Amino acid sequence: MDGGEPGGGGGLLQQILSLRLVPRVGNGTTTYSSPLSTFPEMWYGVFLWALVSSLSFHVPAALLALFTLRHHKYGRFMSVSLLLMGIVGPITAGILTSAAIAGVYRAAGKKMIPFEALILGVGQTFCVVVVSFLRILATL
Length: 140
Description:
Elements: H1 11-18, E1 24-26, E2 29-31, H2 39-68, H3 78-108, H4 114-134
Helix pairs in contact: 2-3, 2-4, 3-4
């Protein structure tokens, strides 16, 4: 794969940057040129950040599981399940919770700055990680 291919490697990253979900720095100050005002913009912004932050937790965990359990007969497949959890979780539950967040913002008539989309998307992943580590569901 050539490094000079236009749009070849960073498709998801390019989508995030094209939506201006990352604050731009101009002349020494951070500017938010256009807040997210429509429902699809807010929903997509929160959803993308939830997906990216979930993958940033689950891909290293899957690689660690693959490395440590590579000689185990069935343990090596744990990395596949970790990777699937990092993708399927945000796609199913992340879509719904991001839509609920965007719906509340839209119903309130409030515009969302891109940094709020980042905080809310990463916050969803943080809640999933906390619930996973505290084993709250195992006590039910």
